[in-house]
Write a structure and sequence with these properties.
The complex is a heterodimer. By secondary structure, chain A is of the alpha+beta class. Helices cover 32% and strands 24% of the residues of chain A. A seven-stranded mixed sheet of chain A has the order 10-13-14-17-18-22-23, sandwiched between helices. In chain A, strands 1, 15, 16, 19, 20 and 21 form a six-stranded antiparallel sheet that branches. Chain A is globular and about 75 Å long. Chain B is 15% helix and 33% strand. Chain B is an alpha+beta fold. Chain B contains ten helices and 35 strands. In chain B, a hairpin with a 4-residue loop joins strand 8 and strand 9. Classes of the chains: A alpha+beta, B alpha+beta. Chains A and B meet through helix 10, helix 11 and strand 16 of A and helix 2 and strand 23 of B.
Chain lengths: 453, 613
């Protein structure tokens, strides 16, 4: 992913990632005035049931309703008794719905609205379960799914805001925008004839989205230039490159050999469905480049999918246990098969505070299996993998923690992945990290832990 | 071994009788086709049985192409025009062909199993020798020494798990006008631990490599005495092409890898993670080392890419410049890869390219199209693009396709799957199994990889899937097409044809011949007394219900439909997740119901019995 530093008033946000990061609780995924919309009680019970099945810790429906009810009672200024006592005695769906209906009615008598009732209940449930809870619409869930699959449909641009206009921060190599001449730093003045001056980013995204095969037109221009270019593009599945090297060749593949050392460099920006495939391709290129060692840069790697982290680890490990993953269905262990790529090259993995989730787990397992040493700075520690799960009879998905990433505990058994400390702490300025690690890797003179550079 | 034979089978003759027959033959030759000569099929009659060409080879002069048809005939075609010069019925189900010299051709007959040596005579083709072989001769290769002189033939017998070396005798011949009549000479045979298929043989360096038809197992043998030198395996299965690098320092093979960690999801298939099609390069030193590795180091190149899968790679040839020509059987194409493995060209040739031969210059490839009754002549290097690159030579045959034939074609058609990554054959090798694990939705969930089941003889063993949830073959096939292969659409006609084909597959033959030894009799008694038939009921040795045998999968499921025990000794792994690696361990170490109280002798007897069903 190309993250160019730009002078923007607001934080640059990548268009395609934006919707994936909406973690705020939304209580109006389906309009409350819609007569077909489920009631507060139906919605709450449905969410509790989904959570009890799909959340990694399998909380009970009763515990979830209790947590939600407590918060609602608090917001409504009601005492827990006798409500919670009544709740604990109920077992059938019918009884639970009746309880929630009664509680909702009571809250309404205390001047709460349907929206605030739902919000209070969801807040209560969210704060009680590990990893919290959020809801997203079906469309947003679909976008998330295509991102994880790396089959996002669009024109392939990274968008930020510049002087209250959307600005192109970069394009996907080979995507419609790239092929049709959209340039980095282009300001988008119009989209399909609509002036963007009045749009915030989310509004722009609404216009930008569309199905594969549909056409969208941007009116763009470079900052400060008077020339405007009208660019017509057809949306299509546009994968982004998640694996990068040193220099991109005209056909889109990368060279990986560092210019001044026989060391190959691979940067993984995200762990998605395409990443194992891309990594295999990179390995073929590296095999031609006469290198002696390998750097895997995970410093800016997000990893929402443990499944693909498993497949990447399997590519890099020739044997051993990749690791363990706890899901609502149990704890799965994954073993590496032989046939590892690049197995003769000593491996250094660079980590940092933006090495997240499955990427941390990947780094951890490469070290645990003796395949790699870790360089860089500590990682934040994975907090569980979130997945969006549809709620039956409600046009929304809930985002919840479905997976804990596990590693061998220091004494025995397994424990949740914590912050990783590098074997070699490297705190030089970002631009020098790779060269520093390459030097360390080549010399192999420093083997102590927490050596600082 | 050398004996004169006619088309009806063996007949040992004394020399006097041979002379008499020879004279008679000379006379008859002028009058009509000899009884020793194979009758040429009328080329006028274009409507006839489908040929299903499976093997092809150029004559040494490169003026003719020899083709073996699964339907039982051998053909000779002009390489220039594709004109059929003759077709001769050998009989049986031909599986491979080997051109020994300008006059001699040998074929393997899969069923009934034999090798047949034939010689070109004035009016056609004459059988000069035939040799009964262990079950399922599938591949024949020759080893040449002293220039062009053929010294030995090697035959891989898939179901017999045997490799034969047949010396070729060439009796002295004073006449320079008539060709030397070759005969089969001494025969050596060795047993293998797997079902052999592909053979690569070389005199310098002396190397005989044999690979498994199903899994990634391989054996290196002394080409002279067939003594084992090394056994190794590669990750994966369906090894279908073997070739040396030009300097003979490396061996290339085509194969597939089914990843048990991948899911049969759309994404995993789309990105080539579930099933990868590869060309693998292994150093000869690696596989002949004094301390060999069980899984030698290798370099593999993935075939195909996103949007353009390369399902079921088949034959392979390496040209003098190091570039590779690979048949992509599943997508009916041939690909040219540069020396670094990059796919440079892909040309569609038609359904079922089953073999490959190149001319000496490596400029033209010839491929028999099994499901089109054609031979494709492909110009591999055509810089100006002016000439047609693929010429198709018809082999005649009927245009009509029976339901089973259609199913056979679809079974190997990777274009049924999303982007052409895999066919049914990709996992169910030759209708059997690749011995691997696959994480499909066959059991209703991902995260529970299960052993790929054999389809042989399963036409009458409903229900299907490990949990027995699918009542019919049609339901199973539909589910597989939808949820594993992610077919764009599932045509009921396709399902019907595939089901008909699967129903036509006979059960796998028993591992050992049905000798009724004392041990086998005792094993039969153990089978009855231990109550094995409660779940494995004859004649199919299975039942329609599910049973809990005390083994659970990763999601806690423990009720499984027992697969048929027919041919069970051919399985390299047993139980739903392949946790048992042999019949003995399955019966001894997993408290399998009914076996708890068996002692070691009883288990040994039971295994002997199971090897014969």
């Amino acid at each position: 992913m190309h993250r160019q530093q730009t002078k923007t008033k607001s934080t640059p946000i990548l268009t395609f990632l934006f919707l994936a990061s909406l973690w705020a609780v939304r209580t109006q995924a389906q309009e409350p005035n819609d007569p077909k919309a489920p009631s507060y009680a139906q919605r709450t019970l449905a969410v509790a049931k989904v959570l009890s099945i799909e959340h990694v810790d399998r909380p009970s429906v009763h515990d979830l309703l209790k947590a939600g009810s407590l918060e609602l009672l608090k917001k409504a200024g009601l005492k827990p008794d006798p409500w919670l006592g009544r709740l604990s005695a109920l077992s059938t769906d019918e009884d639970l719905l009746q309880f929630l209906d009664d509680l909702g009615d009571e809250a309404k008598r205390r001047s709460m609205t349907e929206v605030t009732i739902v919000k209070a209940t969801f807040d209560g449930i969210s704060t009680w379960i590990p990893g919290h809870l959020s809801t997203i619409t079906e469309d947003e869930a679909q976008v998330n799914s295509t991102l994880r699959s790396n089959r996002y449909v669009g024109v392939g641009v990274y968008i930020g805001m510049q002087n209250e206009r959307p600005q192109v921060l970069g394009t996907f190599f080979g995507g419609p925008a790239h092929q049709n001449g959209v340039l980095e730093r282009d300001i988008i003045y119009e989209i399909d004839g609509n002036d963007t001056a009045t749009m915030d980013l989310s509004k722009f995204i609404e216009y930008a989205r569309g199905k594969a095969g549909t056409v969208v037109t941007y009116l763009v221009g470079q900052p400060g230039a008077t020339e405007r270019r009208n660019i017509k593009m057809t949306r299509r599945e546009t994968p982004r490159q998640t694996v990068r090297g040193i220099e991109r060749m005209p056909n889109g593949t990368w060279t990986h050999r560092l210019p001044d050392a026989p060391v190959a460099y691979i940067r993984i920006d995200a762990i998605s469905a395409s990443t194992p495939h891309e990594l295999s391709r990179a390995a073929l290129q590296i095999a031609k480049e006469d290198v002696e060692s390998l750097i895997l840069d995970l410093r800016n790697c997000t990893g929402p999918s443990p499944h693909y982290a498993v497949l990447i680890a399997d590519l890099l490990l020739n044997s051993g246990t990749i690791g363990w993953i706890q899901t609502p269905h149990g704890t799965d262990r994954f073993d590496a098969s032989p046939d590892a790529i690049l197995r003769d090259l000593p491996l250094a993995v660079i980590i940092g505070p933006k090495t997240l989730a499955s990427a941390e787990w990947l780094a951890s397992t490469l070290r645990t299996n003796g395949r790699a040493k870790l360089y860089g700075t500590p990682t934040p520690g994975a907090r569980g993998i979130r997945t969006s799960v549809p709620v039956p009879e409600w046009k929304a998905h809930i985002n919840l923690v479905t997976t804990w990433l596990l590693v061998p505990a220091s004494l025995e058994g397994l424990e949740r992945l914590r912050s990783l400390r590098p074997d070699h702490r490297v705190t030089v300025v970002q631009d020098r990290v790779v060269q520093t690690v390459a030097g360390l890797l080549r010399s192999e003179t420093s083997h102590g832990n927490d050596t600082e550079y | 071994m050398a004996m004169t034979q006619n088309t009806d089978g063996y007949s040992s003759m004394n020399p006097g009788l041979i002379r008499l027959v020879a004279v008679a033959l000379l006379v008859l030759t002028w009058l009509a086709s000899s009884s020793q000569e194979l009758q040429a099929t009328s080329l006028e009659a274009k409507i006839g049985p489908r040929r299903r060409p499976v093997a092809i080879e150029l004559s040494p002069s490169e003026r003719e192409l020899w083709v073996a048809n699964e339907s039982g005939s051998v053909m000779r075609l002009s390489t220039d025009t594709g004109e059929i010069q003759g077709e001769w019925r050998v009989g049986g189900k031909l599986s491979d062909l080997c051109v020994l010299d300008e006059y001699h051709v040998a074929v393997t007959v899969f069923e009934p199993p034999e090798v047949v040596l034939m010689r070109s005579v004035r009016r056609g083709l004459q059988i000069v020798d035939r040799l009964e072989t262990p079950k399922g001769p599938i591949r024949i290769r020759h080893q040449a020494t002293d220039g062009e002189k053929i010294q030995s033939l090697y035959v891989a017998c898939q179901w017999g798990r045997a490799l034969l070396k047949i010396n070729i005798d060439s009796p002295p011949n004073e006449s320079t006008a008539t060709p030397i009549a070759l005969e089969f000479g001494e025969v050596r045979q060795t047993r293998l631990s797997f079902a052999p298929r592909e053979i690569l043989v070389s005199t310098r360096p002396p190397l005989l490599l044999v690979t498994d038809a199903l899994s990634g197992a391989a054996s290196v043998l002394d080409p002279d005495c067939l003594d084992p030198i090394n056994e190794f395996s590669v990750l994966g299965h369906n090894i279908r092409g073997l070739a040396f690098s030009p300097d003979k320092e490396s061996v290339f093979l085509t194969q597939q890898i089914l990843n048990p960690l991948a899911h049969s999801s759309y994404d995993d298939l789309h990105w080539g993670l579930l099933l990868t099609n590869v060309v693998r390069e292994i150093s000869v030193d690696e596989i002949t080392a004094a301390t060999p590795s069980a899984m030698p180091r290798s370099r593999k190149t993935q075939l195909g890419t996103v949007g353009l899968g390369a399902g079921d790679p088949g034959r392979l040839a390496v040209r003098s410049d190091g570039s590779r020509v690979v048949v992509l059987q599943g997508v009916g194409a041939v690909a040219v890869l540069s020396a670094d493995g990059t796919e440079k060209t892909r040309l569609r040739v038609g359904p079922g390219p089953s073999d490959l031969c190149l001319d000496a210059k490596g400029k033209t490839a010839y491929l028999p199209l099994r499901f089109a009754d054609r031979v494709a002549a492909v110009s591999l290097d055509d810089p100006d693009g002016s000439a047609p690159r693929v010429r198709l030579f018809s082999l005649g045959g009927s245009r009509e396709e029976s339901l089973v034939d259609r199913g056979a074609r679809l079974f190997r058609d990777a274009t049924l799957s999303h982007d052409g990554w895999m066919s049914c054959q990709s996992c169910h090798s030759e209708g059997h199994t690749n011995h691997g694990l696959s994480d499909t939705l066959g059991d209703g969930s991902h995260g529970t990889p299960k052993r790929v089941l054999s389809l042989l003889g399963t036409g009458e063993t409903a229900p299907y899937a490990w949990n027995g949830s699918l009542p019919s073959l049609e339901a199973q096939i539909t589910k597989t097409l939808r949820t594993t292969m992610h077919a764009t659409s599932v045509d009921p006609k396709t399902v019907k044809a595939l089901a008909a084909f699967v129903r036509s597959l006979p059960p796998p033959p028993p591992l050992l011949d049905n000798r009724n030894t004392a041990s086998v009799r005792r094993g039969r008694q153990v089978f009855d007394q231990a109550g094995c038939s409660r779940c494995h009921e004859e004649p199919q040795f299975t039942t329609a219900s599910t049973h809990d045998v005390g083994l659970t999968d990763e999601r806690g499921a423990s009720a499984f439909n027992p697969p048929s025990l027919r041919g069970v000794a051919r399985q390299r792994r047993l139980f739903h997740d392949g946790r048992a690696r042999s019949l003995t361990t399955a019966l001894r170490d997993f408290s399998h119901p009914g076996t708890d109280l068996l002692n070691a002798d009883e288990i040994a007897d039971l295994v002997e019995f199971l090897k014969r069903i």
